[in-house]
Design a protein that fits this description.
single chain; about 120 residues; alpha+beta; Arc Repressor Mutant, subunit A
Length: about 120
């Protein structure tokens, strides 16, 4: 359980940065080089490489070196684990939001009746 918690922490930490989420989203479409990942984000190769390293440590990306090209590929396993964890709490939040919606509707109905 502790190992799973550490892995999950790394995944959520990696996904906490917008540039890394953008990279993960783009990698869902297929392999890209670090340069291709950096280009639309208007960041240096060095900065993009640092972001890729965070994604690698979290197990979200696998990087292979082909000569001077560093090719990145999405590893979906950790995303599946994160999605499963979030899905567990989805029911909790859905119930809470439904209760809040019911409360708001009853308040609105009460105000309309007073008019």
């Amino acid at each position: 359980m502790v190992e799973q918690t550490v892995e999950m922490d790394a995944v959520f930490q990696a996904l906490a940065h917008g540039a890394r989420r953008e990279m993960v989203g783009r990698l869902a479409g297929g392999e890209l080089t670090v340069g291709e990942l950096a280009e639309p984000l208007e960041m240096s190769l060095a900065a993009a490489s640092k972001h890729v390293k965070v994604l690698e440590r979290a197990g979200l990306v696998r990087r292979t070196v082909e000569g001077r090209r560093h090719v990145c590929q999405l590893e979906p396993g950790p995303l599946v684990s994160a999605a499963t964890w979030l899905r567990f709490y989805e029911g909790f939040w859905a119930d809470r939001l439904d209760a809040l919606n019911t409360l708001f509707r009853s308040e609105l109905d009460s105000k309309e009746e007073k008019r």
